[in-house]
Write a structure and sequence with these properties.
Helices cover 38% and strands 14% of the residues. With 296 residues, the chain is of the alpha/beta class. The protein has a four-stranded parallel sheet, sandwiched between helices. Strands 3-4-5 form a three-stranded mixed sheet. It starts with a strand and ends with a helix.
Length: 296
């Protein structure tokens, strides 16, 4: 196995770099993919040997990777094994970012994006070459994102500190899963009414038939103080859907329940004028709150 990391300046130039082959102490896996054999890795540094240099490079930066969930999970697991803590507060996935830009490519693999932007990839699946290619792709991708007013998929990472002081990193679970369980600080004001603004606390479901990615829409929903729901029920305020299927999907479910359906472009525009909602605490009588607390 190998590891490579590049620290970029604000203008996208490489400030620091780290690259090393690593001796995993086990079979290196699919040699036909990465080209690394057990003989090549025998005697190379271990992750523990290079972890201090890696942590110094990562400190105070956003971790950017192509499928960042995989890379973050690998780094977090290796760091825990050597009792180190990743100094990473946020991550960004370039697969998700490219998905938001509607590039028209056959797929979103790194080599495909490199070809799309005219960037030469010398050794696919080599850690250093992949990192260098990604650094070159990042400039035009960020420029395209600014042109399209696309939100960057930057996510905060979470970690737990146990009583013994040990720090563990939670895996980057899909945003849809986290958002569906996330309590909204505002009370649900009910159904959306066409012609009126959105109100914080409204419960929003997303149909499959939308032009923006679900991740971007969920980020915008949460940022606006709305609640994301993965189900359509009588408490749903609206469903974002561009084309309602005649017999299935969330758009169809909404029409059956009388839940308003809003096209994606209209919903995005309406997020600029969301009005304040009522905090849930305002709906709890102080005396009732005392009674509830006395039960515990």
């Amino acid at each position: 196995m190998s590891v490579a990391a590049l620290a970029l300046s604000d203008d996208g130039n490489v400030e620091k770099s780290l690259y090393s082959l690593l001796d995993p102490g086990v079979d290196p896996g699919p040699t036909h993919v990465h080209g690394l054999t057990a003989e090549m890795l025998d005697g190379q540094p271990t992750f523990g040997d290079i972890v201090d240099d890696l942590l110094e490079l990562l400190r105070g930066r956003t971790l950017v990777a192509h499928n960042v969930g995989f890379d973050y999970g690998f780094l977090a697991a290796e760091a825990e094994l050597v009792e180190a803590a990743l100094p990473i507060e946020s991550v960004m996935c370039t697969v998700e970012l490219a998905r938001r830009l509607d590039l028209g490519t056959e797929n979103l693999r790194l080599e495909t994006l490199a070809g799309h932007w005219g960037i030469t990839q010398m050794k696919p699946h080599d850690a250093l070459d992949d990192a260098m290619v990604l650094a070159q792709i990042l400039k035009p991708v960020l420029a395209r994102a600014r042109e399209r007013s696309a939100w960057l998929p930057v996510r905060s990472v979470t970690r737990r500190t146990w009583p013994n002081g040990r720090v563990t990193h939670d895996q980057l679970r899909p945003l849809k899963v986290l958002a569906a369980r996330m309590p909204c600080p505002y009370a649900n004001p009910g159904r959306f009414v066409a012609g009126r603004p959105l109100v914080q606390g409204m419960r929003v479901a997303l149909a499959a038939e939308v032009s923006h990615t679900h991740e971007e829409l969920i980020e915008r929903i949460l940022h606006a103080g709305l609640a994301y729901t993965d189900a359509v029920d009588p408490h749903t305020s609206l469903v974002v859907c561009d084309h309602i299927s005649t017999d299935q999907g969330k758009g169809y479910q909404a029409s059956e329940l009388g839940v308003p359906v809003v096209p994606g472009a209209e919903f995005i525009r309406s997020l600029d004028s969301v009005i304040g909602g009522a905090a849930i605490d305002e709906f709890v009588d102080p005396a009732a709150r005392d009674d509830q607390l006395a039960l515990f």
